[in-house]
Amino acid sequence: MKNKLNTLIYTGAAVLLLLSCTLAPENGGSDDGGNAFLPGDRALSRIDGLLEAERPSEALQWIYFYKGSEDPPELNYNDLEKQALKEMDRQLSRSLEDRDYRKALSLLRSLDTLKASRPVTPVPEKQEILQDYVKNLLEFEKSGAAAVMVTQGVLSLKDVTDQDLRYLEERFTRGEHRKALAAVVQELENRSLAPEILSEEFLSTPVTMEDLLEGTVTVWVDKGLRLDRGVGYPDRSIGSGFFIDKSGYILTNYHVIESEVNPEYKGYSRLFIKLSDDRGEKIPARVVGWDRHFDIALLKTEIEAPYVFSFARDSHFALGEKVFAIGSPGGLNNTITSGSVSAVRRPLQTMGESIQVDVAINPGNSGGPLMNSDSDVKGIVFAGITGFEGVNFAIDGDYVKKLLPQLYEGGALEHSWIGIGGYQGFDYLEVLYISPGSPAASLGMARGDRILSINGNKVVRNQDVRDAILGVPPGTMIQMEWQTVAGQRKTSRLSLGLRPDSPLKEAVRRDTRENLIPPMFGMVLNQVARQQYTVERVYTGGGADEASISANDTIILRRWDVNEKDGYVLIQFVFKGLKAGYLESAVQLGAGLESAIFF
Fold first, then answer.
1. What pLDDT was estimated at residue 138?
2. What angle do helix axes 126-139 and 101-114 make, rounded to 10 degrees?
3. Containing H/E element for 256?
């Protein structure tokens, strides 16, 4: 009797439909693949090349790698280390002169990680640099970024009153520090900052719904005409946004304004906003900075904001907490909806987790503020699921606050990474994949190793690591503790690399399909013949697990298709397995090239 042929198609992940609109980088690894142990001459050449390229943190990573190896090349590591630290000292002084405070803070953080001695050139302490950073943001009318830095506790209000900030007194008011600080907070238009030091007049003015509506805008992206069967129709995207400082800066979603900045879009695109009044006037705007991974964008318009929203100091969400949103569903501005927090930590984005709410959200709400009962912003509305009433999502305000200073700098945001695809066990984080040429590859790590801590803080989820390095510039040194498959505990200092826009898409171009199958489909294969494999391991929750594939099953690969344009990989194979009674089954698995396992 012939074996019955069972066909199973597994698509990998549910599709999230956004309802909110109407509608080879430097990576911190080596140049030769990252994980090759080089003899002395080539090792010295590698380190010298990094120092000449003014990349001292990466040079130090290799210095420590060779220094701690069992068979190191014959190099003078102490002299090389001194040379790299001297270059970091020079860059620190230069970044302070250039007022590049993010880089200066990155270098100070690296020196702290290395436990290196203070630089030879005298430099301010971290708190002094943070003070200067806030002053610089205010000087260049980027008060929204200054406000979130203070809101996050990056800079305490006590620090703002230091004598070093006489500039603030001279700019805003003369007299006592308390009055100066009150003026600063009023300039920031941030009601959540230290209400005890503000004037009674300022505090006694309650925020009204009319105020909130005035600070919310409708975002219009005009894409010209769309032809359908020879008939032209207006093609436009509609979303929402809200002012975050007096100078006319507005936050919204990236997907609302994507056509303005996506180089793959070749059509016509013009960006406008409409205020909440009844005039309906279209005011030109431009995109300043954006991040597609967190779906946020910063816009600028040349008008003074009628009302400025404040971010909540505490962005913690409690289940059942009452929240409300303002937006323009279908272009109907001044629409207020309310509800509660349904769930937290929903893994819907490739780099962050989302908040689920039952607040009514419709096309056009994207980019509107999600607020608490004090009218402070705790998130940004961005998505819903088609056909599911009351299942909607918002971006956590903590992510927005961390990234906002970078958005003000302009352009697409760059993120740091270690270069690992992680598997989350019950209470551990295991290495599932290591990207070629990444910082992790240069440490000699392998699949099955476990990540224990980052900078001394325990991690058990992919998001734990991403949160630990979010907003930290590439090139910053961190300390990672990990455990090998053999059980050996190691502590390594590494230089964060520049995260590719799509790690899996980059990996498909550089790696073999056998290495890509574990992170994409959740199984490890051992080759026994041409196109024939045995299954070594199946990871719970992956595509192979959902397809009822088990360890020791036999697999014969038939097809491997990569579609970068549409962002997916398909694999077809025939397998015999215990769960299928050793009957021969044909299986097709699909995996998207956008993955949330990387950090």
1. 75
2. 170
3. helix 254-261
